[in-house]
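hey so i finally got around to running the thing on that chain from the lab meeting. sorry it took forever, my laptop kept dying and i had to restart like 3 times. anyway pasting the input first so we r on the same page abt which one it is
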Amino acid sequence: MSWIAQILTLYPDMFPGPLGASLSGKALNDGIWAIETLDIRSFARDKHRSVDDTPAGGGPGMVLRADIVGDAIDAARERAEPDWPLVYLSPRGKRFDQALARHWAGLGGVTLLCGRFEGLDQRVIEARAVEEVSLGDFILSGGEPAALAMLDAVIRLLPGVMGKEESAEDESFERGLLEYPHYTRPQLWEGREIPAVLNSGHHGKIAKWRLEKAEEMTRLRRPDLWSTYERRHKA
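ok and heres what got predicted. didnt touch it at all, straight out
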């Protein structure tokens, strides 16, 4: 059975987008995952297919209406399994990370609601128990680019997508560390050599070197990750 990505969006033509290429595209063609897009405008109630209105209390921009988005969510949930997360992509949500990607990959699918304008009427978030998730501390034009990035992170974790399972397990953030440096031929390039230990054939020494380099990079570049890693592994 395919893993399902349900997308509620004003721009269904943005999907699958880059997810239709490379590993995710092959997995899509192979039926490992599938995508369902629901156009929020199809639930509009007037001839102009309006989905937004001015903010209550005044202010700039427009807000997605609770009644229209509520109907769109209800239609999507009728086709979803009960354990699928219902997620609104919002800058005020909890931060998306590798652990959440792995959690979603272990389920049968996810329903992603892509916001636009100034945001979504708070009442529908509360009434439908929508989980808010953020890609990071920056502003996008809408939820669609964030949805594509999150789905890419999830799809590559699905069984049969990656060529070697150890490739996924050894990457950045899987152990709470940034990834160690990589090298390949030529052995000497512009006066710079591949570290000798990587040509030693000693798997134990190579593993030790890679762990040390990953720890060093994390400590220098991401002290926030390093603090968490130290608490878990250095106690």
